[in-house]
Amino acid sequence: MNFIKRYKFFIVTICILGIITIVNRNLGLKALSIAGYSFKEMALVIPPVFILLGLLDVWVPRELMVKYMGEGSGIKGILLSIFIGSAAAGPLYGAFPVAAVFMKKGVKFSNILIFIGAWSTTKIPMFLFEISSLGSRFAITRLLIDIPGIIIIAYILYYIVSKDEVRKIYNNAENL
Asked: Where are the transmembrane segments (predicted)?
């Protein structure tokens, strides 16, 4: 019974997919193919991310993370968050386990938000693609708008979200 409660969304989704396949075989098979592709993509991305996270957790002491990205880090924490997020590889869902490890290591909440924002919008490969496809003027303009936007949004969220809520988020990360 606990199994059914835990995986009810997955079970309902499989049932709906089965009904769709019975009603429209081509649509059902296409949906199954897309789901299989997404699962394969995640299976190739998640293991390396977790290996790197394990190494980060073991090799980088908490004191070092607090010094460079913690509460008193200032501009160096912001720049480091942008750099790490921009240099990261993989889809956005890979950023959240990294953010959880950052929380365990004492990284300031605004720096975590900046890291996630940089991961999603300022990746170096994406920037290089934009230069080659859309021109350097567009790519540099977008980057010059995105970076301050990320920082502004991160600090707005930092001040809007209550300290109690942030504490709960950090506690949840500790329990992972």
From this structure: 7-23, 43-60, 80-103, 109-131, 143-161
